[in-house]
Structures are given as C-alpha cells and as structure tokens.
Automatic annotation (TrEMBL):
GO terms for biological process: arachidonate metabolic process; glycerolipid metabolic process. One of its GO terms (molecular function) is calcium-independent phospholipase A2 activity. A motif (DGA/G) lies at residues 109-111. The keyword Kinase does not apply. Residues 1-122 form the PNPLA domain. Pfam families: Patatin. PANTHER family: CALCIUM-INDEPENDENT PHOSPHOLIPASE A2-GAMMA (PTHR24185), PNPLA DOMAIN-CONTAINING PROTEIN (PTHR24185:SF8). It comes from the Eukaryota. Keywords: Lipid metabolism. InterPro entries: Acyl_Trfase/lysoPLipase (IPR016035), PNPLA_dom (IPR002641). PROSITE patterns: PNPLA. GO terms for cellular component: membrane. This is PNPLA domain-containing protein.
C-alpha cells in the first residue's frame, strides 16, 4: 500500500542521502569527473524522452538521435554527480522520480528505454570523436541472466497468463532484456566490427538478486568469481584493453628496390609519471610486440627505468617490408600477453 499512496516502495530521501555520501562531490560536467574518460548516464524524462547526462561536450549539437543530450548554457546549473546517478536509478515503484529544477522536469530509470545502452554508446562515441574507425573494443557488462524456461502448457496457468494486461507486461519486461539487445547488435554489425564486441554476463539459475535484497550479494559475488576468474574471456578482454593503450608513430622511411625500412616508436596513451603507467609497464615485462618479421620485448630494462623516472613510455622499433608489399594491405602491429595474440590499431602500408 505504501507504494500506491507515496509512489515509492523505498525511502527516496534516504536514498538521496546515500548517493550524496557515496558518489564524488561536484558537478558531472566541469567538476571532479572531467578527465579523459567520457561518462554518460541514461535517464527518462517525464515526457518519455530518453536523455543522456554527460561529463563531456559536443554530441548534444546533433539532432535526430532518438534521444536528447542535456547540456546547460550556464555551467553553474549543471547537475551534480549524485543527481545524475539518482536520475538513472529512479526505478518506478521503488523510488519517486528525481526532479531537476533547472530542467523543469522529472527523471527516472534510464533502463526503461536503454537497459543495455550499447547502441547509444556507439552512437555517442562517433559523435564525440567524429571518426568512422571501429573502436578497439566495445565492452558490455551485464547483471546476470536467467535462461528462458520451457513454455508452461497448463490450462489453469495459461488462462491467467494469457490475459491481455499480463501479456503486455511480459512483453514489456522482455523488451528490457540486455542480453537480447546485445544479440540483436551482433546480428546487424559487420564481421570485423563483431570481433570487437565483448559481453561479460553470468548465468543465474533463478532471479537471485531482488532489488531490495542486499543479503544476496555475497553469494552473487562468489558465483561471478567462479564463472569469470581466470576464464579465457577475461584474459582476452584484459589483453585487448592493454593493447588499446598503445599506438605507433612512424618517424622515417628508407626505400630501396628490394625493401622498405620503417623506423618509429610504440607509445603509450597513459600519462608520463603516473602511477597507472608505472604499474602497467611493470606488468608488461613478459609481454612482446609482434611487428613485421620480428618479435621485440615490450619492456626492456632501459624502458622500465625511464618510465619509473617519470618519462613517457617509448619503445623504438625498426622493421622491414618487401618493396612488393601491397599498398592496400593493412600493417598489423600486435601485442602478445598471456600467450594470446591480438591486433592493435593497424595503419595502411600506403601511408608508410
């Protein structure tokens, strides 16, 4: 009865307090989260329009997206981090919708339209970076799924299950399935793009985690560990993420009738002197780059010493291509980690 009269099963005020205490202080745009990571939060406005709140700029200038990117002209009116989280977490029936005064509207759970927002994310990434290149990786992390049960054929059960409102309810809930959204995406992209799609999700025997049942979390954590820790899927994703931290810069080329000699550097996107770069470089001591016709260590001692001293990661490399090398063929530089090979971002040999 509480949910009927107050439009909430849980205490929204207490939830707001928890978010304020748990999330970073400051504004989502122009605040503590404004760094190289682009963060977008999905929500649904009271007029049923899907919206995105983000810590980046630019994408909101485009029209006809099927959703709206919310940006204030006055930076002082931008939403706080906790407000963005609250807008996205306002599950109808559990919490009241979040009212944003500057927007003059109420907002609630973005999962009502984008329970798995992978298509929206791909669209936003193209608008932010204005590129037609495929991403290094598209990683989607689910919250668990239950395999469909066999259709029940009992006459008594079917009578109630087949009432129109219940059918509509079942179909609506099925439309929110993040796993189905992912499978639909895999079916419409090219084969080359599909190779870059990765989905992490654990299989559940039943719907084990009620929204109001935090006591089930420990068992879910153990189940996730059993299914994922040390799996080939996790190792592959880790390797791809490692490879995406590098890029190749060509310094100069010498040519002859027989061969093309390329000299360049493999560089890291991580900031020089940062703890992230130092730790990452140390973990790559046993890794190797696979350049044309040779294999070289990722981290010779001199490179590691330079990184620890605060210098950028820089691995000099020299390799040879035959003069007959097809200009239209892509030049692959790979990284080998945990005995797995994966493709880095290729460059055209015509450019070389």
């Amino acid at each position: 009865m509480r949910a009927f009269f107050t439009d909430e099963w849980m205490n929204s005020s207490f939830f707001n307090k928890l978010l304020k205490e748990s999330l970073p202080v400051g504004r989502l745009f122009g605040g503590s989260l404004e760094d190289n990571s682009k963060i977008g939060v999905t929500t649904i406005r009271s007029d049923s329009m899907p919206c995105v709140l983000g810590n980046y700029n630019g994408a909101h200038c485009n029209e006809n997206k099927g959703y709206e990117f919310l940006r204030e002209e006055d930076p002082s009116k931008e939403v706080e981090v906790w407000e963005a989280g609250r807008c996205s977490a306002g599950v109808p029936g559990y919490f009241q919708p979040m009212h944003l005064t500057h927007k003059k509207a109420f907002f609630e759970d973005g999962g009502l339209r984008y329970n798995n927002p992978v298509a929206l994310i791909i669209n936003e990434s193209k608008r932010i970076w204005d590129t037609q290149h495929s991403p290094d990786i598209v990683l989607s992390i689910g919250t668990g799924f239950v395999k469909s049960q066999e259709q029940q054929t009992s006459t008594a059960t079917s009578f109630f299950r087949n009432r129109s409102l219940l059918r509509v309810g079942r179909h609506f809930l099925a439309s929110l399935c993040g796993e189905t959204t992912w499978q639909n995406l895999e079916g419409v992209v090219t084969e080359r793009y599909r190779e870059r799609l990765h989905r992490i999700n654990i299989e559940l025997e039943v719907d084990e985690a009620g929204l109001d049942n935090p006591g089930s979390m420990n068992e879910l954590i153990l189940k996730a560990d059993r299914q994922l820790l040390g799996s080939t899927q996790i190792l592959e994703i880790a390797s791809i993420l490692a490879a995406s931290q590098f890029y190749f810069e060509l310094d100069f080329v010498t040519t002859s009738k027989r061969a093309v000699v390329c000299v360049g550097r493999i560089l890291s996107r991580l900031e020089a002197g940062s703890t992230s770069l130092i730790d990452f470089t140390r973990k790559l001591k046993d890794g190797a780059f696979l350049v044309p016709n040779k294999t070289i260590k990722c981290v010779p001692e001199t490179v590691l010493l330079n990184v620890v001293r605060g210098l950028p990661y820089e691995r000099h490399v020299k390799f040879t291509l035959p003069s007959s090398y097809d200009n239209k063929q892509m030049l692959d530089i790979r990284i080998q980690l945990h005995s797995q090979e994966l493709e880095g971002r290729p460059i055209s040999s015509k450019t070389v």
